[in-house]
């Protein structure tokens, strides 16, 4: 069924909101003082981020395919799997959804933000920051991680990973949001240690803006372009690689 662009816009917005609410929510849960989940660790964060993406996909998937990420929309368009004319609306919806998700995290954990004095740690519940600040390497980390994200998403649709009506064989991609959940968990555990694996401007810049609206303290604008430009470059590269995969 072909849904109107208004419906697609709203579902991308809501799906991204859900993604950020659950994803930044676990960061707040693990970080903030007096939270029952404080100090639960990186494993909890990576698993919860995978589940956050799963929840967003379940909401938006039937209507839009659940890109939930400008880098994914752009990468799929480069690969010829998504119309360029729809990219601006999808990206706008994703950015708005990410901002609203950040606002909800702030409202939900407001008492705990008030009880936490470390401004940098509070910012880290909204957006990413490098473990070692080295801008060229931080940018490269985001590019590589996003290439892996988008090219593997594209590979979900390659013959052998999808349902084959001739043989009635089901590939892994026929399991709905489960493969992308596993992908996000794997990316976080393997490639998340350098920059926090943003891979998504709507997951980073949008909640960063929400932090600027809701809270005092630095927003680290000097770094903020890295988790925007890096994922977009990575998405474009993955899109070109996707053209090759589709031609095989």
From TrEMBL:
<keyword id="KW-0472">Membrane</keyword>
<keyword id="KW-0813">Transport</keyword>
<dbReference type="GO" id="GO:0015254">
    <property type="term" value="F:glycerol channel activity"/>
</dbReference>
<dbReference type="GO" id="GO:0005886">
    <property type="term" value="C:plasma membrane"/>
</dbReference>
<feature type="transmembrane region" description="Helical">
    <location>
        <begin position="178"/>
        <end position="200"/>
    </location>
</feature>
<comment type="similarity">
    <text>Belongs to the MIP/aquaporin (TC 1.A.8) family.</text>
</comment>
<feature type="transmembrane region" description="Helical">
    <location>
        <begin position="39"/>
        <end position="61"/>
    </location>
</feature>
<keyword id="KW-1133">Transmembrane helix</keyword>
<feature type="transmembrane region" description="Helical">
    <location>
        <begin position="221"/>
        <end position="245"/>
    </location>
</feature>
<dbReference type="InterPro" id="IPR022357">
    <property type="entry name" value="MIP_CS"/>
</dbReference>
<keyword id="KW-0812">Transmembrane</keyword>
<feature type="transmembrane region" description="Helical">
    <location>
        <begin position="139"/>
        <end position="158"/>
    </location>
</feature>
<dbReference type="InterPro" id="IPR000425">
    <property type="entry name" value="MIP"/>
</dbReference>
<protein>
    <submittedName>
        <fullName>Channel protein, MIP family</fullName>
    </submittedName>
</protein>
<dbReference type="Pfam" id="PF00230">
    <property type="entry name" value="MIP"/>
</dbReference>
<dbReference type="InterPro" id="IPR050363">
    <property type="entry name" value="MIP/Aquaporin"/>
</dbReference>
<dbReference type="InterPro" id="IPR023271">
    <property type="entry name" value="Aquaporin-like"/>
</dbReference>
<feature type="transmembrane region" description="Helical">
    <location>
        <begin position="92"/>
        <end position="109"/>
    </location>
</feature>
